[in-house]
Design goal:
With 575 residues, the chain is an alpha/beta fold. It has helices at residues 2-24, 52-80, 87-109, 116-141, 145-151, 160-192, 199-257, 261-276, 280-287, 332-344, 360-365, 382-393, 398-404, 415-422, 447-455, 470-479, 503-509, 513-522, 529-532; strands spanning 295-302, 305-312, 316-320, 323-328, 350-354, 373-378, 408-412, 426-431, 457-466, 482-487, 491-495, 535-540.
Length: 575
């Protein structure tokens, strides 16, 4: 439906809701509200009952817990879903449905609850216990061959079947804790509602506490806890939070009726989980199948993402957001992409590279001595932590050179924003962007992004990026007047001026002594590059008639939503 179509759909649904409310209004009771302070039939509760402020604090903590758990689920299941645009909606959809179902069930169950205080605290502890146990279960089964074949990081999943498995995982991990926490809201209402004349006020205060707790849980877990503690550490911290609520209740209620065995057993189970839950490096190493003899994993995580470099004999793939983005030594095609722009441009003094991975593209972009600056922009900061850790293991490697060469400006941020705010123009811009089916990839393959790149190139500057689909090629040629599609590697070169493309000359430059020394450090043989451009290139000029076709825009990134937009690879001719 696109962005505008979705907005129109939302508008129609809101309009129908308003119409339903107006139609229901005549059915409401015409009797006036009871006078102020008219007592309801709800009993005042037991001795030592909690007041509205205390309940608001408890609801704040409950709201904090559930949204912090949701952030955890997004991190873990986002890795399982390989950053798909469908992963977050699946998680959120399961969460909202389960939470709503729990609330409806709790509204019926609450009439049988004698002590809402105890039931509320037990539900928080039980929800945390179930959430931690299901996460631990996922960690344990991840290397199991049938599961790894479907959801392992080595498998690329662009199909409905894999999303179906992800939906089942979301139902198993998110559904039960969300249902239990949804049950707790009617308990709060039973405890705090004392006066029919103040029902609205009390609902409002309790809901305000819950919403503030939601916001605090989101910000604290997403920006602070994941950054400092990682996924496993954040899980342990949330177990401790639920355990502390349980300990407080056990102490608070001891003076009334003594400690209950159920509370003690639940507290003991939470304490045991804190002890046995794996540490962060062990957690992500197992998820990324670092278990063969002789394998090691370099693991880094912060609020921006998870990066694992799986090494055996000093070689292996780098995983970002759950799938392999690059490797060490570098893939030849990453080195080619980085080197091709400076190889074509007559004097590439200033180069920008969007996307770092293990470093192959930015490293190759700096091969010419004339290049003064290579600014590399990476959105996931732990990439640099892993590169530095690898550089310490292999000080003579290309990643180590990348980390210490002063010409390379290694920056953390959004490449598109950096182009916009830097105020600089570049001789060469290259995008080794995230994979097409990754969430928000459309922002680096849209016509709006391409126009922004074009506006920030110097006269005669060139832009190089992958051509993963027909829509990407169509978007590219709709913006740049001069375009070359290199085949079979599928790399697009664009400029506002004619591109000096001579394959023999470019290959000769990439076989020079300077480049061969540069490539040797990266473990790449430049003689293989001839195979990457062996097919005739497709060339467009301003006079070339562009055929009609779909493009990717910021508000309609079709390739990102691949279930209802078939991914077509850019084979064949384009004239």
């Amino acid at each position: 439906m696109g962005f505008e179509g979705s907005l129109h759909c939302g508008f129609v649904l809101n309009l129908l809701s308003a119409a339903a409310a107006l139609l229901a209004r005549p059915c409401l009771s015409p009797h006036p509200a009871p006078p102020p302070h008219a007592e309801s039939a709800t009993p005042r509760g037991q001795p030592g009952a909690l007041g509205l402020p205390a309940w608001t604090v408890l609801v704040f903590l409950s709201g904090f817990l559930i949204v912090a758990l949701e952030i955890l689920w997004v991190r873990v299941l986002g890795i399982a879903g390989q950053g798909s645009a469908y992963a977050f909606p699946l998680i959120l959809g399961v969460f909202l449905l389960a939470d709503g179902a729990g609330l409806l069930f709790g509204a019926r169950w609450v009439a049988r609850v004698r002590d809402p205080r105890r039931a509320f605290i037990l539900l928080q502890g039980l929800a945390a216990l179930v959430a931690a146990l299901t996460l631990l279960g996922l960690w344990l089964i991840y290397p199991w061959p049938p599961f790894a074949a479907a959801m392992g990081v080595d498998a690329v999943r662009i199909n409905a079947a894999s999303l179906g498995v992800l939906a089942l995982l979301a139902a198993a991990l998110v559904g039960p804790p969300a249902f239990l926490l949804g049950m707790s809201f009617p308990l709060v209402q039973k405890a705090v509602q004392r006066d029919l004349a103040s029902v609205g006020f009390r609902v409002r205060i309790v809901q305000l506490g819950n919403i503030i707790g939601n916001a605090a849980g989101s910000l604290t877990s997403g920006l602070v806890m994941l950054h400092l503690l990682g996924t496993a550490g954040t899980t342990v911290a949330l177990i401790l939070l639920a355990g502390l609520m349980l300990v407080w209740w056990t102490w608070f209620s001891a003076s009334e009726s003594g400690r209950d065995r159920l509370e003690v057993a639940l507290a003991a189970a939470l304490a045991a989980l804190v002890v046995v839950f794996p540490r962060n490096e062990a957690w992500w190493s197992r998820i990324h199948d670092v278990d063969e003899e002789g394998e090691t994993g370099l693991v880094a995580e912060d609020r921006s993402g998870v990066v694992v470099l799986r090494l055996k004999n000093g070689e292996g793939p780098m995983f970002i957001s759950g799938h392999a983005q690059s490797r060490v030594p570098f893939h030849p095609h990453h080195v080619f992409l980085g080197a091709i722009g400076p190889a074509i441009h007559p004097m590439p003094k200033e180069v920008m590279v969007i996307g770092v991975g293990s470093g192959g593209t930015p490293y190759a972009a700096g091969w010419r001595p004339e290049t003064r600056t290579v600014r590399a922009i990476e959105l996931v900061q732990p990439v640099y932590d892993v590169i530095r850790a690898y550089a310490a293991l292999a000080p003579d490697s290309a990643p180590a050179w990348l980390a210490r060469d002063a010409r390379f400006e290694l920056m953390v941020g959004d490449g598109r924003r950096e182009i916009f705010v830097s105020g600089r123009r570049w001789d060469v811009i290259e995008a080794d962007a995230i994979l097409l089916y990754t969430s928000h990839s459309g922002m680096l393959y849209s016509v709006e992004f391409l126009r922004q790149v074009q506006d920030n190139l110097k006269e005669g500057g060139i832009f190089a990026q992958w051509a993963p689909t027909q829509r990407v090629v169509q978007s590219f040629i709709s913006v740049f007047p001069h375009v070359i599609l290199l085949r079979p590697i599928s790399v697009l070169i664009g400029s506002t001026l004619p591109i000096p493309w001579d394959p023999d000359e470019v290959l000769a430059r990439l076989d020079s002594a300077v480049f061969r020394a540069w490539a040797e450090r990266a473990g790449v043989d430049p003689r293989t590059f001839a195979e990457l451009i062996a097919a005739p290139a497709v060339v467009w000029g301003p006079e070339t008639v562009r055929r009609e076709g779909e493009v990717n825009t910021d508000l309609f990134p079709r390739d990102e939503y691949y279930l209802n937009n078939a991914v077509e690879w850019p084979h064949g001719t384009w004239h």
